[in-house]
Amino acid sequence: MNHQGLLSQQYSQKRLPHAILITGPIGSGKHDLAVWLTELLACRDPQQGGSSLTACGHCKNCLLTKSQSYPDHLTLVSHTASIGVDDIRHSNQFLEKTAHIGQYKTVMIPNADAMTIAASNALLKTLEEPTSDSIIIIITHDIEQLLPTVVSRCRIITMQPLAGQQLIEQVMEQNKALETIDDLEKEFVNISHVSELKNQETYADFQQLKQSYLDLINQNGSSDVLYEQLMNNEHALRWLEKITCNLQRAQHLPKYSKLSQNHCKLSTSVLNQLFDVIIKANRTLKQYAQVNRQMVLEQLYFNLIKILKS
Q1: What is the E.C. number (predicted)?
Q2: Nearest one of 214, 196, 218 to 205, comparing CA atoms
Q3: Which of 4, 20, 39, 51 is least surrounded by Cβ atoms within 10 Å, i.e. has the fewest?
Q4: Residues paired with 155 in a beta bridge
C-alpha cells in the first residue's frame, strides 16, 4: 500500500498520528504528499479514488483552502534563513485554539531542518503534549539535521523518488520525444534529470550536446560546437557527467556492449580520465561560491581536448 493509501486508511479509522515527519531527497514528492494530506483533513466530503481518499475540491473548506484562507491550517513560513523559536511559538499558539470550521487544526513545517535548537525544543514541547484534533506535518530532506527527540515523537514517512522506467512513464505525456530514448539512459535515469525529461526544448538541447560530445570523442565534428554549448547552457556540465557515466556503464555491462561500440571507441582508461576532470570541475563550482564559472568551464574544455588528443 502506498503512503496515500495508508494515511487514507488511518484517516478513515481515526488513527492518524498527531505528528507526521515526511523525509526524502529533493524531488521525491514530500511536499505534494503533505499538501494532499492537509487538503484531505480540511475537506468536508472526501472522495474515494482507488486505494486513497482525496479532497472533493468544491466544498466550502476546499474552496477556502484553494484561496489560501482556510482558518484551520497554518503553513509555517519563516522570514529569515532559519526557523526560529518565535516561528514555532506562533504555530504552537495556533494549535492551542479550537478549530473554527474544520475537524482538525493542521500545521505544516516545510524545510524543518532549518529549525534552530531553540525552535526544535519549543516544538518538542508540543509534540510531547499534543492538543486534541491537531496534526503537525514536518517536512525535511535531511532527517539527520533534526533533534533525535523530535524525530522519535513523529511517525516517519520516507519518500523515494521515481527512477528508471517508472520516471520515464510519469513524464512521457509531457515530452513525447522520450519515446526514442535509448535503453541505457532509460534504465539509469533519475530525479536529477527531470529538467530535460519534462521539457521538450531542454531535451532537444541535451540531445544536441550529447551528439556534439560523441562527435568530439569519435573525432567526427568540430570542438567549437561543444565549447559554445558548455559556455551557454546551465545544464551542460551535468549532462557531460551523465553521458560519460553512461558510456562507462555501457563498457562494463554486457547487454549494452553493442551500444558502446556504436557510440564510443575510447578505452576505459580514457573514459575514466574524462570523467575525473568533469567531476573535478563540478566539485569546484559547488565548493567555491565566488569561483569564476566561465574560467572553470574553459579549463574543463581544454582538459577534455587534451585527453582526447593524447
Answers
A1: 2.7.7.7
A2: 196
A3: 51
A4: 20
Q: At CB < 8 A and 24+ separation, what contacts does 77-83 make? A: 77/110, 78/114, 81/114, 82/114, 82/115, 82/116, 82/119, 83/109, 83/111, 83/112, 83/114, 83/115, 83/116, 83/119
In one letter, which amino acid is 78? S
Half-sphere exposure of residue 101: CA atoms within 13 angstroms, side-chain side? 14
The closest alpha carbon to 178, from 194, 156, 162, belongs to 194
Radius of gyration of the chain (CA): 25
Do 14 and 152 lie in a common domain? yes
Identify the bridge partners of residue 75 per DSSP, sorted by sequence position: 108
pLDDT, one tens digit per residue, over 8-27 is 999 999 999 999 999 987 77
Residue 180: which domain range?
164-309
Alpha helix positions (H), 97-140: 117-128
Q: Which three cell numbers stand for residue 75?
A: 503553513
Per-residue pLDDT tens digits for 26-70: 777 899 999 999 999 999 999 998 889 999 999 999 999 999 999
Look at the pTM and tell me if it is higher than 0.85: no
Total count of domains within the chain? 2
The reply to whether 123 and 235 lie within a common domain is no
Domain holding 266: CATH number?
Answer: 1.20.272
**Domain end position, chosen among 124, 158, 192:** 158
pLDDT tens digits, one per residue of 294-308 = 999 999 999 999 998
The answer on 304 and 175 residing in a single domain is yes
